[in-house]
Structure prediction request, 188 residues.
Amino acid sequence: EHRTFSVERQKVLTEVAVFEMLPDNVGLVTILNFDERCAEETITAIETLLDNGAEKLVFDVRHNPGGYASEMVEVLDYLLPEGDLFRTVHYDGKEHVDTSDADCLKIPMAVLVNASSYSAAEFFAVALQEYDRAVILGEQTSGKGYFQTTIHLNDGSAVALSVGKYYTPGGKSLADVGVTPDQWIETD
Prediction:
């Protein structure tokens, strides 16, 4: 039997951040990646939890593969006080520093990490740690501290080359080191 269907091609949007209220007025925000819409969804999640009585926040970035630095910076700007948030240094010497304004969230926070917390997830966690705004719980992270550019080749393939390094607000590279948790716990 033959059937004809009309199909509309669209971008598939999946949730980037999900949240729930835990006992004792603890809000849990799981950031699945730092892709498009991460900042919008994460800030909405935080504000919803605060409106529902959250007095503490836990961010879960376990198994988070990273994403866009700009999305991470926007979330950090919402959470942290005035100061440096994230630094990129190209191998040719060009440097860019993202900063935060004075507005910030002043409640206890924690971040869950594991060996699969990668790139932007690591820099998110360590920024909160360096500002002494969150306790990091979990396992040592992977230590991705380089950024790449992709060169598309004529045969349809591509090559990704590292062109610079990322640095924490305190000026540390996480390359091959990762984030050391304040408290080590086994995570799944």
